[in-house]
Every structure is written in C-alpha cells, then in structure tokens.
Amino acid sequence: MLKKLQFPKGFLWGSATSAHQVEGGTRNNWSQWEQMNATRLSQEAKTKWKFWQQEKFPEMFEPKNYISGLACDHYNRFEADFDIAKELGHNAHRFSIEWSRIEPEEGKFDEKEIEHYRKVIVALRERGLEPFVTLWHWTNPIWLEEKGGCECEEFAGHFSKYVGHVVKKLGKDVRFWITLNEPTSVIASAYMSGVWPPQKQSYFVSWKLYSNFAKAHIAAYEIIHEFDDDAQVGFANILHSFEAYDKKSLLDKLMIKIGRYIANNRMLNLTKGYNDFLTVQYYFHNRFKFPRKLHLSDKVESDLGWEIFPEGIYHILKRLKKYNLPIYVTENGLADASDEKRTAFIQDHLLWIHRSINEGTDVRGYFYWSLLDNFEWDKGFWPRFGLVAVDFKTQERKIRPSSLEYAKICKGNVLEID
Ligand code: BGC
Fold first, then answer.
1. Which atom of ligand 1 lies closest to the CA of 377?
2. Pick from 269, 187, 275, 281: which is nearest to 238 by CA?
C-alpha cells in the first residue's frame, strides 16, 4: 500500500556544495598540497582500492584526478546550476565562501570577491532558494597555512576578522550561517591519521584543535549576533552512528562510548550555548568489536565502500533531541556513479528522519550532498556524489534519474513509499 509521509510545513529541501570542491581556480592550502601529492596519490590507488573499484574508476590512476583545477567551474556557472536546483524543486541551498578569495593576503580583503558572493546569494534568493552560508569548509588561505593553519594559536582571531568582514558586507542578505564544516573530520583525517594536509599525526595537536575550533566557532557566533540578533548560527557536525558488535560485551560498549564522545559529542559540549540550531552530516555507521572497527562485507556499499545504513540517522537524531534546538541535516549523500542506489538511499534516510520527526524531533531541513559531482578531496574526481552528473572535460551537466525522484519529494513536501 502506498504510504504518504508528510513533512512539516516550511521544511527546507536542498543540496550542498563547498567552494573548493566545485568552484574551480581556488588557491589555498589544499590546492598547494594537491600539486605536491597528485602523483603519489595516483600510485597509491593500486593498494588503497579494491579490484572492482579500480576497474570501474580507472581515472584514479591518473595524477590529474587529484588536482582540483577547474573543478565544476561553478564560480562562473553558479546561475545555471541554481536554475537546475530550482527546477528540481529545492527551496534551500548550502554553499561555502572561500576564505582565500576574500582575504588572499592577511588583512587585505578583496571587495570583488565579496561582490561575487553577493551575486551568488542574490541568484539563490531570485530562485526562491534559502541560502545556508558556510564560512569555512576546510580550506585555509596560504598565508594562514604558513602560520600553522588551524593549529596556530591565533586561528580563532584570524577567522574572526574574516567573518567580521563577510558579515558586515553580506550579513543583511543571509539568515543562516554555518561557521565551520566538520571540525572533527579535519582533526581525524589531517591530524590523527595524517592523510590530509598538513599530514600531521599528533594526538597532542589533535586535542588542542578541538579548543581552537570551538573558540573560532564561538567568536564567529558572537560576531554574527552582534550584527544581527535574528541570525541563525550553527556549525556543521559530522555525526557517526555506532553499534557494539556484541551487545553484551562491556568492551565493545566501552569502545562505542569513547567513539561517540570523540567523534560526536566533544565539539557539541565545547560550543554549548552558542548554537541556534544543530546539524547532522551523516555518512558513517561504525560497528565495534573490541579492540577495532569491523568491516562487514555483506552490507550494501557506496562506490567508496562505505556501508549504507539509513537507520543510523534516526538514532543520531534521537540523541540530539535533548538539546531542544532546531536540527538541519546539512549533508547526507553517497558516491554512486551509476545512480542505482541513490533513490533508495535518499528515500530510506528520509523515512527514518520522518520517523524521528513523528517522535518529536525538531528537524527542519534536509540537504543532499551534493548538487554536483565534484572534487572529493584526497580521492579526487572519481567518486560521484552528484544529483547532477558533471562531465569534467566539457563541463556538461546531466540530471540523474534519482534527482527527479528527490524532486518529487521536495515539490510535494511528502515522501511516498510502498
Ligand atoms: C564533507 C564534504 C565531502 C563529503 C563526502 C563531508 O564530510 O563535508 O566536503 O565531500 O563528506 O565525503
């Protein structure tokens, strides 16, 4: 029987992008690192990915896969891209401002770039898309990186000056601000495992970074509110779902407690009182069997080999209920080049989100990651997350069938399922 699951009135539907991944032509710590590491990354693909992935995505062996370069040329094509989002029934869109464009040299702000982002915001509003503006999505200006980037003592101070400038110039057109994107992903991948720039492996620095990021968020929160009392400010938090392999094992349960604290709760605790809304960015389900994480090969996976576990988002949302704040799912998506799994992925996650809304969780929006296929950081261009496929040679856009299914949900504010 057909079930119609209605979402609350005014629910925001959209997708998300980030500057470095889509704009093209950025010059920051990542673009520098890419130049130095592309060859190495292309060589490592042989040992890093499974045979089926290597066969399906041979571009992973080419160094140019790892150079963001022109990306989706979204810097020049944003209007046409937003036309697509509008056509797909979206009423909101999350994007990020590239700090290195706004402040290419310390203390020198580029007004042309401010104007660019003003046009981006106007273009969204003209199409009826509510802008969710992220102020930092992992990339640092080179001058800041040279001072130590996120780990330098003055990170929050530098970030505040940039935020102050942006908010003064663009603040009257923006209601929703996201200060930082997934601080804990940077801590884990750049400073714990040492895979991303600056490739450190230091638990000491990692620990310090939590407080650097919390300070930066709180300072930005205050600056934005000084300018506009009604603004809504939060940070984008990646939240993992955890499961003890053996529900009776104290050690497995202890592992997930520690995991949950480090990955999900610490940033929330440190920024308590300084969030007008909470966010969920959900990609990962972790099963722990002491002393490590389990990878069960019988599970449905994305092209990246990430397990698809929609129920996880329900448990995450349930845990956020106690904070009594509005919640936006600011990212959820999968790499699926052939688009075989994306429709079910979106529907299944929305089913669990709807269930948690029914049980009283105040979820107010859902942003699929991503509008476009884009540059997936150290993995480059081969993982295809887009609602819209991008041919990176011609910049041609092609709407994927799943995005039309998602459009039905957005337009009707309802999920219809058998
Ligand atoms: C990040 C995106 C990234 C996506 C898929 C999120 O954690 O915010 O930048 O592309 O995950 O890996």
1. 10
2. 281
- For residue 131, give the nearest of 123, 139, 140 by alpha carbon: 123
Provide the angle, in degrees to the nearest 10, between the axes of the packed helices 342-358 and 401-412: 20
CA 350 – CA 105 distance, rounded (Å) = 43
Q: Single out the residue of 391, 390, 349 nearest to residue 367, CA to CA.
A: 349
Q: Which atom of ligand 1 is nearest to the CA of 370?
A: 10
- Direct distance between the N- and C-terminal alpha carbons of the chain, in angstroms, rounded to an integer: 5
Residue 287 tokens, joined = 């099963």
Q: Compute the CA torsion angle 201, 100, 135, 197 (nearest 10 deg).
A: -10
Look up the pTM and report it: 0.98
Residue range 270-277: mean pLDDT, rounded: 98
Choose which residue among 331, 374, 381, 384 to substitute to test ligand 1 binding: the one with the highest number of ligand atoms within 8 A of its C-beta: 331
For the segment 217-235, the average pLDDT, to the nearest whole number, is 98
Q: How far, in Å, CA of 217 to CA of 136, rounded? A: 10
pLDDT tens digit sequence for 42-53: 999 999 999 999
Q: Is the CB of 371 under 6 A from ligand 1?
A: no
Residue 326 phi/psi, 5-degree rounding, is -60, 150
Q: What is the CATH number of the domain that holds 226?
A: 3.20.20.80
Q: Which amino acid is at 59?
A: E
Nearest CA to ligand 1 atom 9: 18
Among residues 75, 78, 80, 46, the alpha carbon closest in space to that of 61 is found at 46
Three-state SS for 290? coil
Peptide bond into 198 cis (omega under 30): yes
Written as six digits, the tokens of 282 are: 């959900």
Confidence of residue 216 (pLDDT cuts 50, 70, 90): very high
Q: Is the pLDDT of residue 297 over 80?
A: no
- Range of the structural domain that residue 294 is part of: 3-417
The count of domains in the chain is 1
Look up residue 123 and give its two tokens: 């273009």
